[in-house]
Amino acid sequence: MEEKSLRITGADKNFFNKITTTLTRILMPTKIGINGILISIKRNNLIKSYENYKSDNENYNKDELEKKYDTVYEAYLDSLDKYVMDSIYKKVKNNTASEFEKNAMSQYYEVTSLKENEYIEYKYRKQKYLIELDYKGVKISGKERLIERYQEFYISKMDSLYKSILKNYSIKVADNTDVYDSTKEWIYIKIFNTLQDYIENILSLKIQINYDQNLKDIVSEYERYESYTVGKLDVKDNIEKNMVLLGISRKLFTHSLPLIVAEQCYEKLLKDARSLVQDTKITTKREKAYSMLINLIEDYNIKLLSTKVYWDSPKVRDEYKKFWNKYKEISKLKENDFIEYIKQKEILFIKNDIKNLYKDKTDYSKLLRYYKRKLVDYGAIKVIKNKCKSQGKYIKIKEVA
Questions:
Q1: Which burial class, exposed, middle or buried, applies to 114 when counting CB atoms under 10 A from its CB (0-12, 13-18, 19+)?
Q2: pTM of the model
């Protein structure tokens, strides 16, 4: 419907329609110029109000400054929204828009399509869209002082909007259980896409301009994420990339993406990784997928479960304590015998994941066999021959490891 609304019929236009179109084309530059001036004025007012609101000047009433800032912010958004509809929309409609303007209009429709069924998400995403659109214009202006002042507001407001968007997703995901729910697949995808968007557009900017000294703790993880932004990613790469995103989120979005939701996101990745190992037939690719799964199991247990305070039952908590104590014991080998440390750690992860697979309703029979072969190779288990003699005949029995 949106595409149809922007289509020009051309030959079917009558005389008055042709005149209207001509006048629109003539007046368009003036309209754009007026909107540009209004946006510039309201942007400057916004920056001043934001700076006053964030200042520690005791001579001003903080509540009054906040109220003024909110009012100016709303007026600023209105001017941007008007610019989209008065200028970009008309240029697209009259087939005079640039590729940037066409993309901007397409994104606008994408955001507004959420209004009816996902109003909360629409509310935050529309603000995000309008501010991003103006930020691109500010950068193009090349005015360094303006860019510097606007960035302070831009980063602060974007932080707030991303947290609100993720919190909205978290509410949708969280329920009475902390087990991954496949019926919410689209929400998990939105969470990962939002985290990726934040890291590429906001976190990268913060690191670039040295916005926050506390970010030094996650620079190495950000650089690790950057390695997944080059070239075409396969299924394994995408799972690894999302694993890195979750790791960073545990430091940046602990409240808007709480542990119970992050746990379900990890469960989704584990399910995807297990299926990949089980379904991959080429040996070299399967080994790479298996290595990725082991890293994911470690991330899940160390970065998330080790910080978990509330458990479903004392029994589950005690089981994890045993695992954690064993992991800490194995970690002591790291300095003196690194190869043995890797081996024992892998055995621990495999045995622990086997327990989880037996509880899962998914058929992981192929993965279980693969795991057991790994344990046999490491000498962690022995194989009992799968034949026995009964009444003078050999019959096969289930292999026991």
A1: middle
A2: 0.82
Copy the structure tokens of residue 162. Answer: 């991303």
Residue pair 310/317 in contact by the 8 Å Cβ criterion: no
For residue 87, the SS3 value is: helix
Nearest to 178 by CA among 361, 310, 354: 310
Dist. CA 114–CA 131, nearest whole Å: 18
Q: Domain-by-domain residue ranges, the chain?
A: 1-113, 156-310, 330-401
Structure tokens that stand for 300 in this block: 């899940």
Total Cβ atoms within 10 A of residue 104 = 19
Rg, Å, the chain Cα set? 28
Length of the chain, in residues: 401
State how far the Cα of 171 lies from the Cα of 150, in Å rounded to an integer. 32
What does each of the 401 residues of the chain score in pLDDT, given as a tens digit? 344 334 334 444 454 454 444 434 433 444 445 677 889 999 999 999 999 998 876 667 888 899 999 999 999 999 999 888 888 888 888 888 888 888 889 999 999 999 999 999 999 999 999 999 999 989 988 899 999 999 999 999 999 999 999 999 999 988 655 567 777 899 999 999 999 999 999 999 999 888 777 788 888 899 999 999 888 899 999 999 999 999 999 999 989 999 999 999 999 999 999 999 999 999 999 999 999 999 999 999 998 999 998 888 999 999 999 999 999 999 999 989 999 999 999 999 999 999 999 988 899 999 999 999 999 999 988 876 655 555 555 444 444 44
Residue 201 contacts by C-beta under 8 Å, 6 or more apart in sequence? 132, 158
Contact 374, 351 (CB under 8 A): no
